[in-house]
Every structure is written in C-alpha cells, then in structure tokens.
Design goal:
By secondary structure, the chain is an alpha+beta fold. The protein is built from 16 helices and 16 strands. Helices cover about 40% and strands about 20% of the residues. Strand 15 and strand 16 form a beta hairpin. The structure holds histidyl-adenosine monophosphate.
Amino acid sequence: MRDVFAPESARWQALVATFAEHARRAGYGLVLTPLIEHVEVFQRVGDSTDIVRKEMYDFDDKGGRRVAVRPEITAGLIRAYVEHRPATPWKAWTVGPNFRYEQPQAARYRQHHQLDAEIVGTADPDADVEIIALLDGFHRALGLQRRTLVLNSLGDSESRPAYAEALRAHLTAHAGDLSAQSRETLALNPLRVLDSKRPQDAEIIAAAPVTIDYLSPAATAHFERVQTGLRDLGISYEISPRLVRGLDYYTHTVFEFAGHSLGGAQNALGGGGRYDGLVEQLGGPSTPAVGFGAGIERILLACDAEGVLPGGHEQVDAFVVVTTEGTDALVLAAELRAAGVSADRAFGGRSMRAQMKAADRSGARVAVIVGADEAAAGEVTVRPLRGGDQQRVPRSDLVKHVKELLA
Ligand code: HAM
C-alpha cells in the first residue's frame, strides 16, 4: 500500500480528469458504491479465483455480518444495479481503491486504484467495442503508445461447458506434471489453471485446447462482429487464445491492454470483458453486461516509462509575507484566492528572512510584502521572484497589479 503526495498526486488528478471527460463524452455517469459489501457479493466473482480464495480482506463487523473490503469494483456495481434497477442500458463509470492480499511486487499492490466503466443491459457486440474503445481512447489521450490489445472469446453458456470439459481432460491427462497449485485449481475450475505463470505449467498450458475452437455459432458471430467493430475504429488487436482473465464471471469477449514497458505478470494496463451471468447471480433478472477496470498505478508507471503525462506542479502564484501583527496575511491571501490567484503564506509570525525563504521554496512567482512601512501607508510591496523590479502599490490595487505581473 502506498502513500501518494503532491506533486505525484497532481498526476492522479490529471489522469482521473482525463478519464472522467472521456466517459462523460461517451454518455457514462459517475456512480459511487460502498467499499464494503456482504462477502457473498464478492464470492460471485468466483469461488475458484485467487481473489476470493486467498486475497480478500474479509471480516465480521460489529453486527456479526461477514463483510469484505472490495477486491474489485464490478460486483459491487452490479449489486447496486440489482438493488436500484436504473434504466438500461446503464452506462456507469467510477474510480476508487481495491484491496487484494497479493504477493507485493513491482506494480502489484495490496491496495490499488482502478478506473472502471460498465454497460449493463445490452448484449449488442457494439457495446463490447465501445467499452474497449473508451479505454483505448483514454490511453491515447495520455500519449501511451507502447501497448497491445489482446482479445479472446470465452463463448456463451452453450460453448463454455464443452470447452471446460476438453480442457479438464487435457489437464487431467497431464496432472502428474502440473505444479501442486495448478493441480489444486484444476479440481476447482480448469480455466483457472490457464492463469498460472509457473514455468512448470507452461508447456502443458501451451498445448491445451483453446476456447475459440469451442464457440457456438452465436458466440462466433458475436466475436466476429466485435473484431469488425474494432477494425472499423482503427483499433488494432491480437487474438490471445489462452486469455481467460482471473475472474469467473466472464462470457464472450475478454480483453486486456498489455503495456510493453511493464514487466511480466504485472503488465496489464486494464482489462475486462462481457459478463452476461453476473446480474442474475446477484439476484437480478437475466441481464447482459460488459466493462473494464484499469489500474491507475500501472498506467502512471507506463506514462513514466514512455515519458508522457509529465509530473504536476504544485506551485502557487503568489506568496504573502507579512511582518506586522494583525491579520493582514489572512486577509490578503483570502483576497487573492477569491480573485482566482493561488496564494500561500507562512504561519507562526516568522522573520522576514524566513518568510522570504518560504516564498522561494513555494515556487511562487510573486511575493506580496507588508512590513511596518507598508502597513502605515495602506500599501503593499509586490516583488517579482524571478527577476524584475518591485513596486509599492495601494492595497486596493493589489489584485490588479499581481494579475498584471502574472500575465
Ligand atoms: P482485473 O484484471 O482484476 O479486473 O483488474 C483490472 C486492472 O486493475 C488490471 O488490468 C490492472 O491494471 C489493475 N490491477 C489489478 N490488480 C492490481 C494490483 N494488485 N496492483 C496494481 N494494479 C492492479 C477487474 O478487477 C474487473 N473488475 C474488471 C472488469 C470490469 N471486468 C468487467 N468490468
């Protein structure tokens, strides 16, 4: 878990603002849901997933309810959808932290933050394309280039059992050579074995049957239409026949953007897919849906590596330096701020020298100084801090004068 300070936090703000603007332009509304839900909500993410089996921050609250801090956003959003039943298609975006008790490593944190978008209530493959295009457009707006969209289809309720059976047969035949962990997951859900990054499993996984060979005609048509849409939008992709993603709720399209500057298993800049069964599993009517989550920390690391989205500047325009008693520093700073000039000041009645040092450190371009002389004359001294002559002006002209200097 990390602490984020200024000026790094200014990049977070810029990132979220860019995403918010892209989501708004595409008709998504901001939705805020609780960080804590009944544990059953997240169990729908999949009993065989690492997230549910090993990584959840779950506990009994003081009322004796089993609850968990969210490991991902989608299940909570769908719980909210089922509870409030907004009109469909429901297009929602959100941003916030998620908690997974993972093995911490570079770009893998126990608290990470996601930007998330979902479309609930349509099975139209154009919605899959729109969701992918939203994430792609956001990456592009940031200037990210070194990334690949990888795509697969897991098929529908008709395709999936046949595939799961074929996969189970293959893995069972080679069970003796699989890692102990993969043998354990095989018993729960053969698809999860495909997530294994253990070298011992690599060869067996590479020889495993692939989902697209088992798609029903309807699932094939859906997948083809998604690809046509992507091509017509000029979004290039690669089909990755073993991409299954680490959550059990997916059907049809699954995708990830792999960042080339990020290492190995931590290279996903965002991922998602269709999940046509989750609404029903959470107690709603059968309702198709599609969405993605994108990790803020990883996107920022990729921006660093590609030299885009430069660090923010947490600088004020003006610094107020007052050496007299009284409330001049409070009043002048408030006046400047109300006029749209960012302003700061020192606290604690410090010496002129110490205050000027603080002004320098603040990065301000202008110091507004009030000493005994100025106070007696009803004036202020306005001193440019990056070259130029200082001037004494009537207090009533302060804002006008500072704005001229800043311009
Ligand atoms: P996910 O693939 O588990 O999907 O997470 C989405 C993104 O969050 C990843 O691609 C990655 O960028 C980031 N991420 C995940 N775990 C970590 C971590 N430990 N440290 C840093 N970043 C991380 C979901 O959570 C789904 N709810 C996405 C979705 C929405 N599917 C449909 N709708």
